[in-house]
Automatic annotation (TrEMBL):
<dbReference type="GO" id="GO:0020037">
    <property type="term" value="F:heme binding"/>
</dbReference>
<dbReference type="InterPro" id="IPR000262">
    <property type="entry name" value="FMN-dep_DH"/>
</dbReference>
<dbReference type="GO" id="GO:0006089">
    <property type="term" value="P:lactate metabolic process"/>
</dbReference>
<dbReference type="InterPro" id="IPR001199">
    <property type="entry name" value="Cyt_B5-like_heme/steroid-bd"/>
</dbReference>
<keyword id="KW-0479">Metal-binding</keyword>
<feature type="domain" description="FMN hydroxy acid dehydrogenase">
    <location>
        <begin position="122"/>
        <end position="490"/>
    </location>
</feature>
<feature type="domain" description="Cytochrome b5 heme-binding">
    <location>
        <begin position="2"/>
        <end position="96"/>
    </location>
</feature>
<keyword id="KW-0560">Oxidoreductase</keyword>
<dbReference type="GO" id="GO:0005758">
    <property type="term" value="C:mitochondrial intermembrane space"/>
</dbReference>
<keyword id="KW-0285">Flavoprotein</keyword>
<comment type="subunit">
    <text>Homotetramer.</text>
</comment>
<keyword id="KW-0349">Heme</keyword>
<dbReference type="InterPro" id="IPR037458">
    <property type="entry name" value="L-MDH/L-LDH_FMN-bd"/>
</dbReference>
<keyword id="KW-0408">Iron</keyword>
<dbReference type="InterPro" id="IPR018506">
    <property type="entry name" value="Cyt_B5_heme-BS"/>
</dbReference>
<comment type="similarity">
    <text>In the C-terminal section; belongs to the FMN-dependent alpha-hydroxy acid dehydrogenase family.</text>
</comment>
<dbReference type="InterPro" id="IPR013785">
    <property type="entry name" value="Aldolase_TIM"/>
</dbReference>
Amino acid sequence: MPSLITGQEIAEHANRDSCWIIVHSESLAFSVIADGPDPSIDKVYDVTDFLDEHPGGSKIILKYAGKDATEAYEPIHPPDAIENNLPIEKHIGTVDPNTVVKVVKEVTEEDKRRQALMDARPPLDEILNLHDFEAVAKAVLPAKAWAYYSSASDDEITIRENRAAFQRIWFRPRVLRDVSSVDWSTTILGCKSSLPVYISATALGKLGHPDGEINLTRAAAKHGVIQMIPTLASCSFDEIADAAQPGQPLFLQLYVNRDREITKKYVQHAEKRGVKALFITVDAPQLGRREKDMRMKFVDDGAGAKVQEGQQDVKKDQGVARAISSFIDPSLSWKDIPWFRSITNMHIILKGVATPEDAILAYEAGCQGIVLSNHGGRQLDTSRSGVENLIDIVAALKTKGPWPNPNFSVFVDGGVRRASDVLKAIALGASAVGIGRGFLYAFSSYGQEGVEKAIQILRALKDEFEMNMRLLGARNLSEIVPEMVDASALRAHAGLTPPDNLYNATYQPLSLASFKTKL
């Protein structure tokens, strides 16, 4: 059994010339003792050579030099990131827990304010829609977490358009149909689902709740909904997979790594763990400029590395998103699709398709589907909404054979807040709809119970799906047809759109640069 490293020894490496930190994560905490996990085990790493390369700057690391950095590390890094990216010779060893003085977190006035808001949250039975979760999350989340979750690119036109587009689609309900019994269950890529909705991938769940994405996993299992695991989760892939129930269907969202061997290993491991479908993100060769997130870096004096001091072109304004995404490969192209098909038998779905031309290419490349998505408005601003693109893309795919095509699915995400939004997308040809931020805000506000409540709002008796299907005159999803909606105003971007007061109440407008001191 290797010797343990004492806290005194670690504390001697607490400067720029020799910087050791302690990091604990459940995915790393496996004891050398044969009886399995030991949550008390922390690891020591030498990060001296990494200080000037850290996207968030060296100061935040040096703040924890010679100490336990887990609290700062865990929410914004996948738990195995340090294990996978730091050379093995920098893995110093295991900490003697009896010799380490834990860093006591200072409780600030802001912490007290947020805790008071948490204590004053509306009870769950007063939460009536997904907008309510967003309003609570906006109040209780730390400023950096809210900025990361809510931000979108540039002027944030597309994120608002994602929501507004659904308001320009009008129902044409049918009457005098027997709707005493309605059924909104379906199959998504061969997997049973209680709703035509899946939980879309969103990153860094622990910024919002200590249990992160596992809140989604447990709630999805309980209510028969499919979760898409994000590449940039706060929890490790195996933590999420281990939290799933036997036979629970899971999808995987993939950012393709510059090192294809890492990607291959990750994809094949996911398949071995039972993941059913691979959603390859194709609209992010570079992440968009998300100014709410970026402005958080201006307020943080820990941003920027020592070697950048005095330079004029230092990118200190990149925010959390850029800090966690430098590995993404911008060279990803159509020529890579055959390679993906060669390394996995999972369904391959391209996430981020926006045009009929690319939809046809995906079909011809042998993919099993596409997601019409603009990344939640976080990539190319003034891109059209997924639901608007749906009409042209379905029309193009109909030229390739019978429709609906059982071998090729079309999903939509972005701006979905109501069951009525889902039904509009289904009527226009979508196979199912992804919801990301809605469930993210639910667990950020109320944990797993929040996600369960969100699913119940969409699904449960006398709630949104049942009511809307009855009022439309549809007994099951196959009866929701294009003739039930009027989408003629969908392309009228400058036309009159009914204001969505609930969405507008939680939307936080962009701000301008602030003076350092108030006059």
